[in-house]
Amino acid sequence: MRPVIPYVTAALLFGLGVYGVLRRRNAVLVLMAVELMLNAVNLVLVTADTTVKAVLPHSGQVFALFVIVLAAAEIGVGLAIVLQLYRLRAGVTVDDVPLDEPAPAVAVAPGGLPVPEAPGTEGAVR
Fold first, then answer.
1. Most buried residue among 27, 90, 91, 125 by CB atoms closer than 10 A?
2. SS3 category, 32
3. What does pLDDT average to over the chain?
């Protein structure tokens, strides 16, 4: 097998992932684009492991396994952030997230639902 085909495929996947991160507004689609980039890196690692015999055997496959574990952790944390963003803003567009002001404090009931504020206590500290 010629290593050029997987390398070109990985470059196309990585480029598509970068385009998705830069152009998408939906946070879930941005996470999917990051996954595309991580899969492209996995493809490069496994291809390099099969074509270049390194001093350590199967080192590319071991690194690819670590990247898969990292991707699973990234999706877990990323989806938790997206769900919290949806609860606070009722939308998951990345452009609407203010980065310079703190999010409003919301009381959460034991079931995970926000507690409505009592009338007249809009600015009170809890």
1. 27
2. helix
3. 78
Q: Which helix H or strand E contains 84, and what residues bound it?
A: helix 59-89
Instruction: List, for residues 54-94, the tens digit of each pLDDT value.
Output: 666 777 777 888 888 888 888 888 888 888 878 777 777 77
Structure tokens at 124: 């009170």
The model carries a pTM of 0.67
Tokens coding 114: 């926000």
How many other β-carbons are positioned within 10 Å of the β-carbon of residue 17? 21
Burial class for 105, CB neighbours closer than 10 Å (0-12, 13-18, 19+): exposed
Confidence of residue 10 (pLDDT cuts 50, 70, 90): very high
Angle at 84 between CA 41 and CA 87, to 5 degrees: 135
Can you tell me which residue has the tokens 């998408």?
24
